[in-house]
């Protein structure tokens, strides 16, 4: 079973359970591709519990897709003039999840934040905390932007890491 819940955007949950059909895997890949290929700040929770491992060939295809996904993620979110903040939480309470947690700790991190959890409530709380750290600004005042503009706010101190693009554009227009 596969479900993609984006009703709480910027918090998005990709939920996988049990035996995944080829259609489930294709929908999962298409939803994540769409998220990555339309660069907007987001918090992604992979909720992967009690999933039956597919055949080796399917796993190898998923690994190839994942490599391409990481390349596109870097191009769209990190290797840009103004990197787009994201946070990814993995809820995987299994041996596979423990292995993923080990790899996340040992591998060089990409700039977005990633964490592995064995408790769903902790994963969801971390995602909600990440959303709280990102202050979403309404960019509707700017005719050239239809998506929210994001800036990072330091842990309640109110110090802004970067000025929102909409604010800079509105000041330029006013000046």
Query: What's the total helix number?
Result: 5
| Global structural class | alpha/beta
Residue-averaged pLDDT: 75
Question: Strands of the biggest beta sheet: in what spatial order?
Answer: 1-2-3-4-5
| Count of domain modules | 1
Give the percentage of residues in beta strands: 25-35%
Short précis:
The protein is of the alpha/beta class. The chain has five helices and seven strands.
Question: How does this model look, in words?
Answer:
By secondary structure, this protein is α/β, with parallel strands linked by helices. The protein has a single domain, classed as 2-Layer Sandwich (Transcription Regulator spoIIAA), CATH 3.30.750.24. The protein has five helices and seven strands; from the N terminus they run ββαβαβαβαββα. It has a five-stranded mixed beta sheet, sandwiched between helices. Strands 6-7 form a two-stranded antiparallel ribbon. Helix 1 packs parallel to helix 2. The longest helix has 23 residues. The chain is globular and about 40 Å long. The C terminus is likely disordered.
Q: What attributes characterize this protein structure?
A:
Transcription Regulator spoIIAA, globular, two-stranded antiparallel sheet, alpha/beta, five-stranded mixed sheet, 175 residues, 5 helices
Helix and strand topology:
Layout: E1 2-8, E2 11-18, H1 22-37, E3 42-51, H2 56-78, E4 86-91, H3 95-106, E5 113-117, H4 120-133, E6 134-137, E7 149-152, H5 165-174
Parallel strand pairs: 2-3, 3-4, 4-5
Antiparallel strand pairs: 1-2, 6-7
Helix pairs in contact: 1-2
């Amino acid at each position: 079973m596969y479900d993609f819940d984006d009703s709480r955007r910027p918090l998005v949950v990709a939920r996988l359970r049990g035996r995944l059909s080829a259609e489930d895997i294709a929908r999962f890949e298409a939803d994540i591709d769409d998220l990555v290929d339309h660069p907007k700040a987001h918090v992604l929770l992979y909720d992967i519990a009690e999933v039956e491992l597919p055949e080796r060939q399917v796993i190898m295809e998923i690994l190839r897709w994942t490599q391409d996904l990481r390349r596109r993620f870097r191009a769209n979110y990190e290797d840009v003039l103004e990197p787009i903040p994201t946070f990814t939480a993995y809820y995987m309470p299994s041996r596979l999840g423990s292995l993923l947690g080990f790899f996340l700790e040992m591998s060089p991190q990409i700039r977005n934040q990633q964490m592995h959890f064995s408790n769903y409530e902790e994963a969801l709380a971390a995602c909600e905390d990440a959303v709280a750290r990102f202050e979403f600004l309404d960019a509707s005042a700017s005719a050239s932007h239809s998506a929210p503009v994001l800036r990072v706010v330091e842990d309640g101190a109110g110090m802004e890491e970067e000025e929102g693009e909409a604010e800079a554009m509105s000041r330029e227009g006013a000046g």
